[in-house]
Write a structure and sequence with these properties.
Blueprint: H1 5-23, E1 32-33, H2 35-42, H3 46-58, E2 62-65, E3 69-72, H4 77-101, H5 104-119, H6 126-143, H7 147-155, H8 158-169, H9 173-189, H10 193-204, H11 211-217
Antiparallel strand pairs: 1-3, 2-3
Length: 240
């Protein structure tokens, strides 16, 4: 039996609201939330809240501990690496198609994203800054006819998104992103696929050099390596 329109709409509303709060760090990593608390806050029943929790847990944005608690997940750098790999692989693959079919309207939209990002540098509105950052890249996917690929990358990039947000909080990094986008756009206009791929690789690899800085400044937001259990013993390959 399919969900009723009302039920589906309510679940989506709760899911999207919670996901946005998690991604923008309004709900910080490690924050405990409950079905009762959220259902009261949004004035809905617990069923759509439970379903939203399950969906967010599948995206590794919530950690549900049965019969105990539900926590906003800490940022997992191994997960960040996988989400980053997915994003980089998909975007690199669509560049050729973009150059074949992109219209002047697509280039204009990219320039508008770049202009909006530049205008936001002084305001420090980093949530909007990332919105136009994503819109810049989304435009490339959509113009290439690969909207589904963008949707996949976006739906599985929660840990990567939070790291990006923390990264642009650091002084000067937002300005660097604008410069990188400008260089990518210029290479796209010149139809230089090799140069675009090189610039994109540099742009998306930028996080590698900033991980230690993020861990030093925001250690409470990251998943810490768990201590080895006393039962975690090498039994010489025996299957227990």
């Amino acid at each position: 039996m399919t969900a009723s329109p009302r039920k589906k709409t309510t679940q989506n509303f709760v899911y999207e609201a919670l996901r946005k709060s998690i991604l923008t760090l309004n709900l910080l990593p490690g924050t405990a939330i409950s079905e009762n608390e959220i259902s009261q806050r949004f004035e809905v029943s617990r069923t759509p809240v439970r379903e939203a929790f399950i969906q967010l847990a599948k995206e590794s944005l919530l950690k549900i501990i049965p019969q105990k608690e539900t926590l906003v997940s800490y940022i997992d750098l191994q997960r960040v690496e996988q989400e980053h790999f997915l994003r980089r692989s998909l975007e690199t693959s669509v560049l050729g198609d973009f150059l074949k079919v992109a219209s002047q309207e697509s280039y204009l939209k990219l320039q508008q994203c770049l202009d909006f990002q530049n205008s936001l540098l002084d305001s420090k509105d980093f949530i909007q800054f990332i919105y136009y950052d994503d819109l810049f890249h989304k435009t490339i996917f959509e113009a290439a006819g690969q909207s589904l690929s963008w949707e996949v990358a976006e739906n599985f990039s929660g840990h990567y998104y939070r790291v990006r947000l923390l990264t642009i909080w650091l002084k000067g990094i937002a300005k660097d992103i604008v410069i990188q986008h400008s260089n990518i756009l210029n290479a796209l206009k010149q139809k230089n696929l090799v140069e675009v791929k090189n610039l994109l690789e540099q742009h998306l690899h930028k996080l590698d050099s900033e991980k230690n800085l993020l861990l030093a400044q925001f250690p409470e937001y990251f998943e810490q390596a768990t201590k080895k259990s006393k039962f975690d013993v090498d039994f010489g390959g025996l299957q227990l």
